[in-house]
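Reminder: ligand-aware prediction takes two inputs, not one.
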Amino acid sequence: MSVMNAPEREQFEYIEKCRGLIGEWSRKKGRNICYCVVTFGCQMNARDSEKLKGILEETGCVSAPEDEADILLFNTCTVRDNADRKVYGRLGTLKEVKNSRPDMVIGVCGCMTQEKTAAEKIKKTCPHVDIIFGTHNVHTLAKLLYRHLSEHTLTVDIWDEAREVAEALPVRRKYPFKSGVNISFGCNNFCTYCIVPYVRGRERSRSAADILTEVKRLSEEGVVEIMLLGQNVNSYGQDLPDDGQKMSFHELIRAVADTEGIERVRFMTSHPKDMSDELIDAIAAHPKICNHVHLPLQSGSSRLLKDMNRRYDKERYLELVGKLREKIPDVAITTDIIVGYPGETDEDNEETLDVIRKACFDNAFTFQYSKRTGTPAAAREDQIPREVVTRRFNEVLSLVQEMSRKRAALWEGKTLPVLVEEVNEKEEGFVTGRLENNMSVHFKGDASLIGSFVNVVLTECKGFYYIGEMK
Ligand code: SF4
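Here is what comes back for the chain with iron/sulfur cluster:
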């Protein structure tokens, strides 16, 4: 991507213009202008936040804690109702802060703002918010910031769909040695409980050439671990033109793993209906593709899966798990489970418990069903009473924990490579890293190890993490 396209050039021009205004503001204050981006939700949002941070740093702002920020952005999530409530709660408490620091800039972006009535609601209930934008125009932050800083008015810009590609903009990665790489945006699946296709739009795959160029560049910058990101990575490429360059996901992941300097490749998230044998073979065969598959189950009841429009059933799911465990004996399988979907019976919940027992998940993110306005499931009249959901949820959670403890205990005493990520803030003299299966390990070490692979004996399994000793 050596030649910039028009949207990229436009944004760089706005970054330059912002730099002038931020410089003036900074001179008036006699200090740097500070920013903070608060991220809610998934890995896709985390990646968008890295792009927002990259743009803000390029304008001359410096990163700071939330309470010191002159520019404070909330990158929101709307997958669950309580995520929305959290954002409104946080925004509410900022009213007083803004009264005492009127030059502060507060922005809200992300999935929540893409909901039909959200911008109106924010304007009405949080008049101290200055900038509102959506998921399709994250790259235009500099333009919006410039407009607000020069006109001092509320700036709202929400796009219904993606209009342009601007990939060459700056990014501020959380870790210098690992990075997410978007391979597709949006989703075509319309699971009946999910708001993602409405707020992130239809699935759009990036070209394999652009993805591989980005991976190569990241590797040259010292990145050793790549996480390929998409709402459904398994259907990657299906929307691309048949131009001879198109790749399917298993071809793409092999090409990424073959990139010089890349030591680990992960991916998130897989849809069971699109998980191919070729992908399982690629994970089994390629030493750099991590033996970890996050495969959302949602429910173990075939009746509910049909109702959710998931397009697989209990048997197909268990068949996939069987194949994964057979071809990749040390694979870690993690999942998402929704408890209390409309119409769910005790028998349906028993089916879910049965899959948890049979699949013996390494970990599972268990959620109580949350109504999302605008989705078909939210309009149903057979919503499950809260106390029933809580009872079933507790049953599911305790079985999930029992199974994951069992799985984790399998590795105790083994020596495995760990990519060291950070100094452990709770235990002095310790660092924390990750195994190939994505579990955390805490062991004695110092900051000089960050970003490198070390062999660690897993001396004690603590259920969801290990204590270890460097070899
Ligand atoms: S696959 Fe289903 S649950 Fe996942 S993002 Fe798409 S619609 Fe939502």
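The longest helix spans residues 6-29. The two ends are 42 Å apart (CA to CA). We will return to this case in the review session.
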